[in-house]
Each structure stands twice: as C-alpha cells, then as structure tokens.
C-alpha cells in the first residue's frame, strides 16, 4: 500500500469533533479520518467498486472481482426481496 499526504481545509468545529472522537476511540486524528473515509466508501456488505474506465461502446469496465462482488450482493438482495413478497 502506498501512503500519500493530503492537505484539506475543514471548518474548525468539524476538526474539534474529529479530535474528540479520535481521543474517544484512542486513535490519532489521522487514524480516525482514515477509518471514517474507509467506512464511508464501504457498503455494509461489500466494497462499492470504483469505475475503472468506459470502453468504446460507453459501457463501464470493472475488474472481475468487482463484478463477482456485485453479482453476490444483487443475488442476496433479490432473494431478500423475494422472501418479502412471498
């Protein structure tokens, strides 16, 4: 994993809230921010794939692993919906 730095301007009140939460969770502010960003980019069951590129036909191409994860999530969702309608 490559680590890079990022400079961000945020309101002082938000920074204060992050600091309180980081201390509560025994995290550095950096660790708290990374944890929250990761959580916001992850669904409850599966990672939401990032669109890699569009091909000439305008369709989006995804890695096979992302396609399989999406297939599994959609299959589970369809089964849940079927249970609810039966």
From TrEMBL:
Keyword annotations from UniProtKB, A to Z: DNA-binding
GO molecular function, one term: sequence-specific DNA binding
Keyword DNA-binding: yes
Any one Pfam family match given in the protein's UniProt record, by short name: Arc
Domain Arc-like DNA binding, chain residue ranges per copy: 7-42
One GO BP: regulation of DNA-templated transcription
SUPFAM superfamilies, alphabetized: Ribbon-helix-helix
InterPro entries: Arc_DNA-bd_dom (IPR005569), Arc_rbn_hlx_hlx (IPR013321), Ribbon_hlx_hlx (IPR010985)
Identification of the protein by name: Arc family DNA-binding protein
Source organism (scientific name): Limnobaculum parvum
């Amino acid at each position: 994993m490559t680590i890079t730095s990022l400079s961000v301007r945020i309101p002082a009140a938000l920074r204060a809230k992050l600091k309180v939460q980081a201390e509560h969770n025994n995290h550095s502010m950096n660790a708290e921010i990374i944890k929250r960003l990761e959580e916001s980019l992850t669904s409850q069951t599966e990672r939401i794939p990032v669109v890699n590129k569009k091909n000439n036909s305008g369709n989006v191409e995804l890695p096979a692993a992302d396609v399989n994860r999406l297939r599994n999530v959609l299959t589970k969702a369809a089964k849940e919906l079927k249970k609810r309608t039966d």
